[in-house]
Amino acid sequence: PFSILRLYHMFFKSIGNEEFAQLLVISRLCGTPCPANWPEVINLPHFQNIKQNKKQYRRRLREDFSHLMPEPALDLLDRMLALDPSKRISASDALSCDWLRTVEPDK
Fold it and tell me: Full-prediction pTM beyond 0.85?
């Protein structure tokens, strides 16, 4: 079965604590942050510097993970990894989602 730890190891363990490398991994999976998918991103420090030197990636989370987990789990992951924090699911809403209520941790 799919686990969040497996996702972490697949994407972040090998890149360590380097912020730019982490941003690149996130962009390749969730799409490049831009005003179209996160209007307030233009207000972040150094956004203009990163924007000028960065390839634009489209969001491909669903196509990369659809074969690893059931659709309700994929919906939750997609909402958890929304680039725009205002569109991201809250922890309490995530914990009460339909899919997590059916998960049996011992299996």
Answer: no
